[in-house]
From TrEMBL:
<dbReference type="InterPro" id="IPR005627">
    <property type="entry name" value="CutC-like"/>
</dbReference>
<dbReference type="GO" id="GO:0005737">
    <property type="term" value="C:cytoplasm"/>
</dbReference>
<keyword id="KW-0963">Cytoplasm</keyword>
<protein>
    <recommendedName>
        <fullName>PF03932 family protein CutC</fullName>
    </recommendedName>
</protein>
<comment type="similarity">
    <text>Belongs to the CutC family.</text>
</comment>
<dbReference type="GO" id="GO:0005507">
    <property type="term" value="F:copper ion binding"/>
</dbReference>
<dbReference type="Pfam" id="PF03932">
    <property type="entry name" value="CutC"/>
</dbReference>
<dbReference type="InterPro" id="IPR036822">
    <property type="entry name" value="CutC-like_dom_sf"/>
</dbReference>
Length: 282
């Protein structure tokens, strides 16, 4: 088992060390918004509408160049769809891990399942070996496992630094009971981070009801295209209806709002209840 304290690098940023705001970024512009607002970390992805896939070499390189204070984690997921990884998928992921590490990624984000809804331990061991000392987050593939208690212990045993989860529900606020249970089970051996539907409006509730200190959201807002000439029909959207003249970027204002909520959390009174730290609202 890898010592988590060695495998998980210290965090930097505007927040107290025990708190973290991670921005799910789809490119350089969103990553810059995260940096300028003071987010702790970026999770860099492509294709957010598919749940996030691996970003390109060029996007990783550009984000690494512009992120001076915000940590950079890179999604390792060569395709959308399920998390049942074939031999070809794993080979792609190994190359992507090598590339991301060479480009200076601070962390890697991946996850694989078996057809029966368990952690694919063989795939996990293969990918963890290639990750080396780079910290690893197991992504929301976890929310599709059939036995979360056993799955969490397996991630801990294999040296995974962090789990991103919505508590096995579509949105984190719906899965708060499970997130709290996972956080209690973890006992500091792995970091539990809430994701899916997280916003400045519910971070306080998530923190109070689950005890977690890490929060993940995209802060995305629509960004209309500046194209003046537009054909009368959509040409490039394919089988998905996506407005080909709109895109989404992370909002500086939303990130700042979330950071202010978390800073407020850090100033709350802590008390010891049944051997674990809980937050109280004064």
């Amino acid at each position: 088992m890898t010592d988590q304290n060695n495998h998980c690098a210290a965090q930097t940023g505007a927040l107290p060390e025990e708190y973290c705001l991670e921005i799910c970024s789809n490119g350089v512009e969103s990553s810059l918004a995260a940096e300028e607002a003071g987010a702790t970390r970026v999770e860099l992805c492509a294709s957010l509408y598919e749940g996030g896939t691996s970003p390109s070499f060029g996007v990783i390189k550009c984000c690494r160049e512009v992120l001076r204070h915000t940590r950079l984690n890179v999604m390792i997921r060569p395709r959308g769809g399920d998390f049942l990884c074939s031999e070809h998928d794993l080979k792609c992921m190994a190359y992507e891990i090598e590339s991301a590490r060479d480009l200076g990624a601070d962390g890697l984000v991946f996850g694989c399942l078996t057809a029966d809804g368990d952690i694919d331990l063989k795939a996990l061991e293969f990918l963890m070996e290639r990750a080396g000392t780079t910290e690893v987050t197991f992504h929301r593939a976890f929310d599709l496992v059939r036995d979360p208690k056993t799955a969490l212990e397996q991630l801990i045993e294999h040296g995974v630094c962090r789990l991103l989860t919505s508590g096995l529900r579509p949105k984190a606020v719906q899965g708060m009971e499970m997130i709290a249970a996972l956080n209690a089970q973890s006992a500091g051996r792995i970091k539990i981070m809430a994701g899916s539907g997280v916003s400045p409006d519910n971070i306080m509730e998530l923190a109070v009801k689950t005890g977690i200190r890490e929060f993940h959201f995209s802060a995305k807002v629509p960004r209309p295209s500046d194209m003046r000439y537009r054909p009368e029909e959509d040409i490039m959207s394919g089988s998905y209806y996506i407005d080909e003249y709109d895109r989404e970027v992370s909002s500086f204002g939303m990130i700042k709002a979330a950071l202010e909520v978390i800073k407020g959390l850090a100033g709350r009174t802590h008390r010891q209840t049944e051997g674990k730290t809980m937050l109280t609202l004064n």
